[in-house]
Amino acid sequence: MTAIQTRPPATARPEIHPPSLLRASSTIVWRNLVHIRRMPEMLLDVTVQSVMFVLLFAYVFGGAIAVAGTSYKEFLLPGIMVQTMVFSSAVVAMGLTNDLQKGIVDRFRSLPVPRSSVLVGRSISSLIHSSIGVAVMAITGLLIGWRVRNGVVDGVLAFLLLLLFGFAMIWLGIWVGSLMRTVEAVQGFMFTVMFPLTFVANTFAPPESMPQWLRTVAEWNPVSALTQACRELWGNGLPAAADAAFPLQHPVAFSVGWSVLLTAVFAPLAVAAFRRRSRD
Amino acid sequence: MSTHPAVEAIDLAKHFGDNRAVDGVSFVVPTGSVLGLLGPNGAGKTTLVRMLTTLSVPTSGTGRVAGFDVREQPDAVRRSIGLTGQAATVDEILTGRENLRLIGSLYGLSRGYVRRASDDLLERFDLARAADRPAKSYSGGMRRRLDLAVSLLAAPPILFLDEPTTGLDPQSRSGLWDVLRELVQEGTTLVLTTQYLEEADHLADEIVVVDRGRVIAAGTPTQLKDRAGQASVVVTLTHAADLDAAAALMRDHSPAVHVETGSRRLTAQAGGLGDMTRIAAVFEHSGIELDDLGLARPSLDDVFLHLTGHRAESDTDTAATNTPEGAAS
């Protein structure tokens, strides 16, 4: 180690300009994106894995599932994109728990940065993460015959609905990530919750064939309204059956409504849990 | 110069339900000095540091750092401190240099400053060659040094170190001690927690011994040692044949003399340095040949045992955890 003189004396402190929320958050986004660049395997869940899902469903189950008014591939793609957005919550939860566990969050909190920048940065990078997945699936879909048939405005609106729902899911992820102590626990919990949530819906099969009680659950599942909205906006199938539950008759409005409601429920829980976790 | 002390804890307490992790701790750290918070695992040291660095909100009591209240002015406190936590909290995926850049940006430091300061710090902490490698590939000692470098980026006047050398091999540990001593010479105030009595003894001007959330003793290392018992003069003879004569000589100056025949060693209770020089003078004139003569004080280990009734368990831990994994966990 070199001599003492290399360091500026304590009187020559640099000027500290506590960063704005925007600047602090984008620094944290930068850091999270460097992680993805260094470890592209972090994206496996939304790339290779979801392409595999698309292909498995399209070619293994697809032939056995009849859908009205369109091919199964067209029916499947919106559902699987919604599933990816739902899994944003697992992505954000695992990332947050990891940072909490390793003391990185404490390190950030010992700096003069806005406290929420850790959460905002984490949320934005998770949304980017999931959006990469949606893009990969859109390309896969285009290759196997899925199309956006209703014009640019409706097409873009569907993607915006996906992002909005992803935003709601991120709060769920922050809540779970703040409550759980290890990444393994988060993973176990999230997969236990996410699979029924995304399967008991109209994502992979029409709910009409389900037992009545399950069909009701499936049709009121927020995931179903969003999937139906995407299908209608992209022209991937018929409107919901005449006897389908109310949300499926108004899927776009309900997609927005569910996203707002879920955010209103989970955001306060998430912020409180994160605060509690990071007060002690 | 500022008139307030660098760090002040006034009756600080933190309770987790029934668990009184910290139960009314007070101390003052004058600017430019080193305070060692010494105590076994679970004594409340980390919780104390977390309260003083605004990471944890005290249940009661007051903490002031650089004159700012940790509860009322957390941002002002954060601008004045550096923190090196118990686990080296570097980002493993980022390189050493990127870790510095990340923290520099979060401090809102100018890019030019961060670049210059990073080069200096990486050089100083012997990390220049590893600067562009992900921190994942660093050894435990390197991670600690990077963690410390990151904490020093904004040249904070007050530095908190939570068990800075836990899990390090002896060489890395003494390397880190050298760095810390340099910082103190430059005027940085240090608050460090440790389970290593030796570490507190080496670095601290003032030691606060904590056990079960309470202060059980405080003072300079020497004062603490004095409390554990008296010093003694230890004389080792060259020839065993002189033992009786030497014992007789020493009894003239000290009531209790203990003779160990095998090692040719005599131990006499002493009040301090004065007694030692007197006994040395006596032997000088006696013609008895000596191998060694010295003053032995009780070690801080003895102090700890004396104060807490149990031994510090630190040293067995080191042996088990001086791998990089141990340091990172």
UniProtKB/TrEMBL annotation, chain A:
UniProt signal peptide: none
Please give a single GO biological process term from the UniProt record: response to antibiotic
Q: Which domain of life is it from?
A: Bacteria
Q: Does the keyword Cell cycle apply?
A: no
| Recorded GO MF terms | ABC-type transporter activity
Where does it primarily localize?
membrane
Record membrane topology: Multi-pass membrane protein
Domain ABC transmembrane type-2 spans what residues? 41-277
Q: What is the annotated localization of this protein? A: Cell membrane; Membrane
What is the protein name for this chain? Transport permease protein
Regions that span the bilayer: 46-69, 75-98, 119-144, 156-176, 188-205, 252-274
Which Pfam families does the record match to this protein? Answer: ABC2_membrane
UniProt family annotation:
Belongs to the ABC-2 integral membrane protein family.
Supply the InterPro entries for this chain: ABC2_TM (IPR013525), ABC2_TM_bact-type (IPR047817), ABC_2_transport (IPR000412), Nod_factor_ABC_transporter (IPR051784)
Keyword terms, alphabetized: Antibiotic resistance, Cell membrane, Membrane, Transmembrane, Transmembrane helix, Transport
Gene Ontology cellular component annotations, sorted alphabetically = ATP-binding cassette (ABC) transporter complex
The UniProt record lists the keyword Disulfide bond: no
UniProtKB/TrEMBL annotation, chain B:
Q: Identify its membrane topology class.
A: Peripheral membrane protein
A single GO BP term for this record reads:
response to antibiotic
Is the Hydrolase keyword given for this protein?
no
Which PROSITE patterns does UniProt cross-reference here?
Answer: ABC_TRANSPORTER_1, ABC_TRANSPORTER_2
InterPro entries hit by this protein: AAA+_ATPase, ABC_transporter-like_ATP-bd, ABC_transporter-like_CS, ABC_transporter_ATP-binding, DrrA, P-loop_NTPase
**This protein's name:** ABC-2 type transport system ATP-binding protein
Arranged from A to Z, the UniProt key words for this protein are: Antibiotic resistance, ATP-binding, Cell membrane, Membrane, Nucleotide-binding, Translocase, Transport
Cellular location(s): Cell membrane
Give all residue intervals belonging to the ABC transporter domain. 7-237
Q: Name one GO molecular function term.
A: ATP binding
**Is this entry keyworded Cell wall biogenesis/degradation?**
no
A single GO CC term for this protein reads:
plasma membrane
Q: Which family does it belong to?
A: Belongs to the ABC transporter superfamily. Drug exporter-1 (DrugE1) (TC 3.A.1.105) family.
Matching Pfam families: ABC_tran (PF00005)
List the source organism: Geodermatophilus obscurus
